[in-house]
UniProtKB/TrEMBL annotation:
It comes from Actinophytocola xinjiangensis. This is BtpA/SgcQ family protein. It comes from the Bacteria. InterPro entries: BtpA, RibuloseP-bd_barrel. Belongs to the BtpA family.
Length: 269
């Protein structure tokens, strides 16, 4: 299966920087602050900074909801996430992505279809991973069918390859996992990560995945900072997430960090 995902057509550039929108705890989460108005205001403020600093997309992630539910987000999480996503969609026309932690694929595609988002991130699309939430199995067959049933075939699927904060139950070559994720599981784009959120993927892993799936876009999805900008030159795009907050997941987005990072990526040959 060839992806047919035209990165420039979607993001307006050949190597976009995606803004990782790390949302504060939502309704029902252990650390929820008691006001969805405050959550929306915080996310909208972060989005305004990200957009002003030059990112080409916004990826909403409910990272404040830890410890994460494994693969079926509760109703209150879905409701709260949809409220936030709707407000971000109204405020900004940039491509919007949805990632419901840890691997709530039904919620992700449902929210994306409801608010008019452009892509979903699925941490475990294929394979079986041992994670800090337990064993998570791939969801590709059900996800692709649900996407079709919702009339949401335009929503792209970003699938992680050997996702961070996890490990495979059986060790397979990375290039085989990449090909399976792209061509058997029908991911429109692949995401490569390091071992955790603050660690970027290795150069070797990026090169391996790129070589394995020459027809499918590959994005970096963890640990990127000014120091690691050269890695972005090896692939089709990257995310700026925790670094945008100077590695403080609960801190504010810092415009100077985001702007400097975006300019450095855009300057790559």
């Amino acid at each position: 299966m060839v992806s047919g995902f035209d990165v420039r057509a979607v993001f307006g550039t050949d190597r976009p920087v995606l803004g990782g929108m790390l949302m504060p705890p939502l309704l029902g989460a252990p650390r929820y602050g008691g006001s969805m108005t405050a959550v929306v205001d915080r996310v909208l403020a972060d989005a305004e900074i990200m957009v002003g600093a030059g990112v080409r997309a916004l990826t909403l992630e409910n990272v404040g909801d830890n410890p994460f539910v494994r693969d079926v987000a509760p109703a209150e999480t879905v409701a709260a996430f949809t409220v936030v996503a709707h407000e971000v969609r109204k405020a900004h026309s940039l491509p919007l992505g949805i990632n419901v932690m840890r691997n709530s694929w039904q919620a992700a595609i449902g929210i994306a279809a409801a608010v008019g988002a452009d892509y979903v991130r699925i941490n475990v699309l294929g394979d079986v991973l041992a994670t800090d939430q337990g064993i998570i199995e791939g969801c590709a067959a059900d996800l692709v069918r649900l996407r079709s049933a919702l009339g949401a075939g335009h929503i792209k699927i970003f699938g992680d390859v050997d996702c961070k904060h996890a490990g495979p139950l059986t060790r397979r070559p990375l290039e085989v996992i990449a090909r399976d994720t792209a061509y058997r599981q029908m991911a429109d784009a692949l995401l490569v990560t390091g071992v955790d959120s603050d660690t970027p993927p290795t150069e070797a892993d990026i090169r391996t995945v790129k070589a394995a799936v020459p027809t499918v876009p590959v994005f970096i999805a963890s640990g990127m900072s000014q120091e690691h900008v050269p890695l972005a030159g090896l692939c089709d795009g990257t995310t700026i997430g925790t670094y945008a907050r100077d590695w403080d997941i609960d801190g504010p987005v810092l415009p100077e960090l985001v702007s400097s990072f975006v300019k450095a990526v855009e300057a790559l040959p």
